[in-house]
Amino acid sequence: MTYFVYILKCSDSTLYTGIATDITRRLNEHNNSDKGAKYTKNRRPVKLVYSESQPDRSSASKREYFIKKLSREKKLQLINQSILQ
């Protein structure tokens, strides 16, 4: 099963990183349901600004951890690089 690592931009311009198997469903949960992360509930609406696929949950979790450790500036560079490609 393919997993996706994604970054959301919240309404207060903060960034949230997560993983999911279905990004569309997960984005809907973040914006419209109680299944979204506690962090994003008070920062709606959120917008998907970055995603990448990973072959399995383990790879996705490792990549998510790596991205979460990046500075905001480095996350923005990652987002901007993906837009240019």
Can you offer a commentary on this structure?
This protein has 85 residues and is an alpha+beta fold. Helix content is 47%, strand content 25%. The chain contains four helices and three strands. The longest helix has 13 residues, at 57-69. The model has no long low-confidence stretch (mean pLDDT 95).
What is the C-alpha radius of gyration, as a whole number of Å?
Answer: 12 Å
Query: Can you count the helices?
Result: 4
Question: What structural class do you assign from the helix and strand content?
Answer: alpha+beta
How is the biggest beta sheet arranged? Answer: 3 strands, antiparallel
Low-confidence stretches: none
Strand order of the largest sheet: 2-1-3
Spatial separation of the terminal alpha carbons? 25 Å
Q: What coarse outline follows from CA principal-axis ratios?
A: globular
Number of strands: 3
- Proportion of beta-strand residues: 15-25%
